[in-house]
Amino acid sequence: MKFFIDTADLEQIKKAQDLGVLDGVTTNPSIMAKVGISGKNGIYAHYKAICEIVNGDVSAEVLSTDYEGIIKEGKELAEIDKQITVKVPMIYDGIRAIKYFSSKGIKTNCTLVFSPGQALLAAKAGATYVSPFIGRLDDTSTDGLNLIAEIREIYDNYGYTTKILAASIRSSMHIINCAKIGADIITSPLAPILDLLKHPLTDIGLAKFLEDSKKL
Ligand code: E4P
């Protein structure tokens, strides 16, 4: 399973990259605003800076919601770097744009996916990635992990190559359960990824080894 980090914070991206487990980055307008990025030049320069840290795909979201606007913006984003994946919302014109980008060899990430039907449409349009938001579903007392399982079943039934990019991850258990279900990728803030390192028996065991090493 691949690990993407869901942030535009360059320090956090560097930390995940240094750990050696980072396969890509996802962003969205809220995430970009959080780090104080503004203006087209500033936004594009920040995407470029992210691409220079990580080796894998970097999702950059379009702000347009009409077909022509999404196409224009998506092409501009794709020109920033070959690592850029154009992130497109799950709307009528978004699906049309994903179909177009797919025909031109431009990578896409279909975002804001909350149902198996939406994921099926994204795959049929040729999306590179589909992003089901599991944490936001959990917030509405709906099992987000069940959506991952349903999408996995549908994609496997027909051999769709669209990658399931489990998004809106809130905990290390989300990551583990996504891995068990067969999500291709998780995109997570840094903290749940680092939480995977933790176990009290590891800490106790290491303390004992270090103590005993003094007898050597
Ligand atoms: C996905 O690509 C989104 O950027 C993200 O995972 C949303 O997560 P949130 O629900 O924590 O905002």
UniProtKB/TrEMBL annotation:
Superkingdom of source: Bacteria
GO biological process, one term: carbohydrate metabolic process
Keyword Ribosomal protein: no
Key word Cytoplasm present: yes
UniProt-listed InterPro entries: Aldolase_TIM, TAL/FSA, Transaldolase_3B/F6P_aldolase, Transaldolase_AS, TSA/FSA_arc/bac
Cellular compartments annotated: Cytoplasm
Pfam family name, one: TAL_FSA
Keyword terms, alphabetized: Cytoplasm, Schiff base
GO terms under cellular component: cytoplasm
Full protein name: Transaldolase
